[in-house]
Design brief:
This protein is α+β, with helices and mostly antiparallel strands. The chain has one domain. The protein has a two-stranded antiparallel sheet with strand order 1-2.
Length: 64
Amino acid sequence: MIIHLLIRGKAVKVKIIDTRPKWMRQEDEQFKCRTFCDEYRKCYTRCGSNCRKFGGDVIPKIRR
């Protein structure tokens, strides 16, 4: 992730690197899904913040 900051009138780019294990990053990605989505238990994708419901691009696949 690259963040652009303005410090003392100068533009600065800051790169943030997440060094946690893959399972931790996936768990954080799905947190929004698990907490705020009513259809989490029926969902096959579980794409987290990339879900169309939360403003992302991925259309979730819901089983009936």
